[in-house]
Write a structure and sequence with these properties.
Blueprint: H1 2-21, H2 26-38, H3 42-55, H4 60-72, H5 76-89, H6 91-98
Length: 105
Amino acid sequence: MYGLFLKVQAHAAIRENLVRAVPESFEIQELLGLVYSAQSQDAKASEHLDKAVRLQPGSVPARTNLAANLVRMGKLDPAEVQFKKAAELDPKSSRETQHPEVLHD
């Protein structure tokens, strides 16, 4: 069990070193947000996903992931803003997600 703890700590240090090395990397910010989200560390996930969205405001997946994370945190109003912005950026994707029947038009 202690070995697993050490591995987790080492991975956390690597992640944080990546952020310090290239803080303006959209890919690293988004990836860290997804990793933290998968670990149910929603506050850290939100921080990185928000940074990813600021770095690439046109990224529909980043906005959608941020919105989902905000929902889990109970922050429904900001989540709605992100979902709506994602839908504005890619209306077809939004329609397909919300209404699969449009795929057959």
